[in-house]
Design brief:
Oligomer: single chain
Number of strands: 6
Order of helices and strands: EEEHEEE
Length: about 90
Amino acid sequence: MHQIRCPFCGVRDEIEFKYRGDAGVVRPGPDAGPQAFADHVYVRDNPKGWHLEWWHHTGGCRQWVKVVRNTVTHEIAATGGPRDRLEVPGR
């Protein structure tokens, strides 16, 4: 079982968290048009390697956590709160 360091609660088992998606996606501006919003919701990359992700600590403090995780090895390089700027290796 993997362990994730919650910035609010400390190290916890992965089972307390729910994966919620890509934390690097930026919402389109209000004048972007319908296709930009459709792409924002439905079109996603499937990266191999380091990736910035959102995880929700549903079994603990219920806070949102940013996680830098390798999608191949599942190694976690960093975690932080929603406003923290995390470095993604290789970017």
